[in-house]
Design brief:
Radius of gyration: 19 Å
Number of helices: 1
Strand content: over 45%
Structural class: mainly beta
Order of helices and strands: HEEEEEEEEEEE
Largest sheet: 5 strands, antiparallel
Oligomer: single chain
Strand order of the largest sheet: 5-4-9-10-11
Number of strands: 11
Shape: elongated
Helix content: under 10%
């Protein structure tokens, strides 16, 4: 079981070596590749994290739908419930290469709608437009916002020699 989970992590994170071999480590630490490299298996942080405050009727949030878009590619996720205490309730979304999670989040009594967008295989470029909307079960849009990525910061959580290359959007709100 542990080998299957590790293989899934490697396949998604892009930390395979050039020969397509997927090395397996029982130690949970660095993984040896056939060319002698030792790589950790850290994945990328989200490419974008979006958040909108919500001050309306909490009952409208239950069984609502979050819609996340990057440019013209959109995905939806329906969330059952509303967090009563601190923390959140979320649901994953996927549409083509657009993957992530929408959450209802409560912190210090205040509610917000949040989303994280994973880079997966998205072709990210400066000027990308992200949007987040949350609609009640009856279709009314309760909150929505848009952001532009004026740039993407690049990072290598396992070192440049191991991959993956990760991108994090530097977002600015749009009117």
């Amino acid at each position: 079981m542990a080998r299957w989970i590790l293989w899934c992590v490697l396949a998604v994170s892009g930390c395979q070596d050039g020969g397509g071999e997927v090395p397996v480590s029982d130690s949970g630490g660095e993984v040896p590749f056939s060319d002698g490299r030792l790589c950790t298996l850290r994945g990328c942080s989200p490419a974008a994290e979006l958040a909108l405050p919500y001050a309306g009727d909490e009952a409208d949030l239950d069984a609502g739908t979050g819609r996340v878009c990057i440019n013209q590619l959109c995905a939806d996720a329906t969330i059952a419930g509303v967090p009563r205490d601190g923390g959140g309730i979320g649901a994953h979304f996927a549409s083509g290469d657009l993957l992530g999670m929408v959450m209802l989040w409560r912190e210090a009594g205040a509610l917000s709608v949040r989303a994280s967008v994973e880079q997966y295989q998205l072709a990210l470029t400066a000027g990308d437009v992200y949007s987040l909307a949350y609609s009640a079960q009856d279709g009314r849009v309760l909150v929505e916002g848009r952001w532009a990525a004026h740039a993407y910061a690049t990072s290598y959580p396992n070192g440049v020699e191991c991959g993956p290359m990760c991108f994090t959007g530097q977002l600015e709100p749009l009117p």
